[in-house]
Write a structure and sequence with these properties.
single chain; about 220 residues; alpha/beta; Alpha/beta knot; 2 domains; three-stranded mixed β-sheet
Length: about 220
Amino acid sequence: MKIHILTIFPETFESYFWSSIIWRAIEKWLFTPVYYKLNDFSSDKFKRIDEKAYGMHGQVISPEPLSKAVNHIFDVVWKKLPVVYMTPSWDLLNQEKVENYYDKLWEEFVVICWHYEWIDQRIIDLYVTYKISVWEYVLSSWELATQVFIDTLVRHIPWVLGNIDSLEEDSFSKKLNRQKEYPVYTRPEEFEWLKVPWILLSGNHKEIEKWKKDNLG
């Protein structure tokens, strides 16, 4: 999977992507993030990319640098790619939608991160394929939302997780009928007077599976 990330602050991705599961995917060449600093596509001598919005308060990212950036990516890869726009007001993510987006985007796509109030609507009209929200609230940095979305996708890439069963039995997975995962326990068998349910220690796989189904959230 290759993701082209348009952002004002590419450095915000490094600390998160260079750790844990995502770094494992990068090391294995299963996931490649490519960063593009939006200011580099500005024709303003101060590399400014925002302007005051018409008819409302606040600043909006101008269409020119975004258009140049998106077209630059298309030129580099020699084709048009799906473009994802992270926004608080459109398609709200859940696990089933994440799986559908993975099927559509697993190979390569562009994602736009924004600051200020919004991006110019004409960029949405001209380029955006999917408008995706991580929840119904507004963030100051949509790099955060982008990291959340990318994380949900990367963990679906084969061989990224150490055990495929952990993906299949995640909360809201298809195998669990989109329900919350059952409670989980580990050693010691007793902690603060609370004991692991005896059935999980029994070795009876049929009964353990039944216990899991009975204890879904």
